Amino acid sequence: MVVTTSVLGDVVGDIVECGGGSVTVLMPIGTDPHDFSASSDQVAGMVKADLVVANGLGLEAGLGDSFSNAESDGANIFEVAPQLDPIEFGAGMHAQVEEELDDHGDLDPHFWFDMNRMATAAQLIGAELTQVTGDETYTTCADTTASEITAAETEVRAILESVPIDQRILVTDHDALGYLADTYGYEIAGTLIPSGSTLAEASSADLAALVETINAEGVPAIFANVAEPAALAEAVAAETGTNIAIIPLYVGSLGAPDSSAATYIDLMRTDVQLIADGLKG
Questions:
Q1: Looking at the predicted structure, is the pLDDT value of residue 139 above 50?
Q2: CA 222, 150, 164, 212 torsion: positive or negative?
Q3: pLDDT the model gives residue 101
Q4: What is the predicted pLDDT for the residue at 103?
Q5: Which domain CATH number covers 36?
């Protein structure tokens, strides 16, 4: 089996290895899924695999041609995000900020920040693996994985709900936390990059408006991205004239094996604890 991102790779790996198979993850740890491109050997690997599990909804923007080439040669690509009742970009945002977002596509691909959706994704992937291979073990294994994710979601929810309602205001590097905001009652006051993709760029007017919003809302932290340079966040923080913290989150990739985000569940626990601590000061 082949899977695109390391976040999905951890979940799919649990299912496949439980069923006696093996998984190849295309994107190395720390890779931004928006701009990753595949080698010719990786495309050949997609063609040979029983199933290729992809996020979809434009997350793997740099893999578009590779997917097309692999499919034309017979690859079986299963995109999971479109099947998870995806939300639109801008969910949880100030109305004026939503209007300023780049047209990156109508639907948000960052579904993994809602753990219940990821649990459903595990079950969908297990069912697809069973259909492709004829092995019911994958369905059983997927149910186990989904149950583990659902159990961890209870802990994640408790951490996020520990933040007072009037302090649940987020500023992020790009529009990646819409599912978290929508599910757990948070508001996104703005983003450093007014887009759902890290490939977009912010204008000076965008950043000036964000500084005004941060100061007006009394936002205590900017949540950046471990995989991206912090220069833009640092520049905005400096412009606010306050002691606003810059807190990197694991967004599109797991952390290294020795990090606090080595698995999907660990990534969620780590990120929400960072969010809660940052907002509560």
A1: yes
A2: positive
A3: 45
A4: 43
A5: 3.40.50.1980
pLDDT tens figures, 55-109: 999 999 999 999 999 999 999 999 999 999 999 997 756 444 444 444 445 899 9
On whether residue 98 sits in a domain, the answer given is: no
Please check whether residue 134 lies inside any domain of the structure.
Answer: yes
Model confidence over 256-273: pLDDT tens digits?
999 999 999 999 999 999
Do 138 and 229 lie in a common domain?
no
Domain around 34: 2-93+109-151
> Whole-model pTM?
0.92
In total, how many domains does the chain have?
A: 2
